[in-house]
Amino acid sequence: MDDSSPGAHVPVDEAGDAGPDVGVVLHGERLRVGTERVPVERVRFSKRVVTTTRTVEVPVRVEQLVVSREPFTDGEAVAAGGPGAPRGDEELVIVLHEEVPRVTLDVVPVEEVRVRVRTVAGEQVLSTDLRSEAVDVEVLDTRPDTRPDTRPGSGPDAG
Fold it and tell me: Where are the alpha helices (DSSP H) in 50-138?
């Protein structure tokens, strides 16, 4: 039988001291706090095209044919029939022009967008239960009491 096991007989030496010390090791939980970096979410950074309608007024010019009629006087009639003037059934063709709005789109840089990751420090309150072992000592004496009773009113003179 091992002398250090519970319930073992511990010899007493002649000086009245018990033999070797007998004990148990008590264990307790200690709180150790740290941090661990874990992924929280994934973020995708992408561009997309947004179409907006823009209405603008564009000034345009149109050529119109203006017909003016003036009566001739006697001397002017001969000069009007000079070279280059249409005669008889000849046609005179005049080309009229107009300005038409034309849209040209140029892609130009408008803005630069930068993205970066920033770490923000904060605190979280953490609470946990810690367990520890304790020793309970219970005296079990099965021997009859050989010590004199020192309680008042007890002993041989009581009566």
Answer: 76-80
CB 61 within 8 A of CB 101: no
Residues 6+ away with beta carbon under 8 Å from 3: 9, 10, 19, 20, 22
Distance CA 115, CA 45 (A): 8
Q: What CA–CA distance (Å, rounded) separates 48 from 100?
A: 32
Rounded to an integer, what distance in angstroms lies between the CA atom of residue 98 and that of residue 79? 33
Rounded to 5°, the CA angle 50-111-46 comes to 50
pTM above 0.85, yes or no: no
Q: What is the pLDDT of residues 38-82, one digit of tens each?
A: 999 999 989 999 999 999 999 999 999 999 988 877 766 555 555
DSSP-derived letter for residue 82 is S
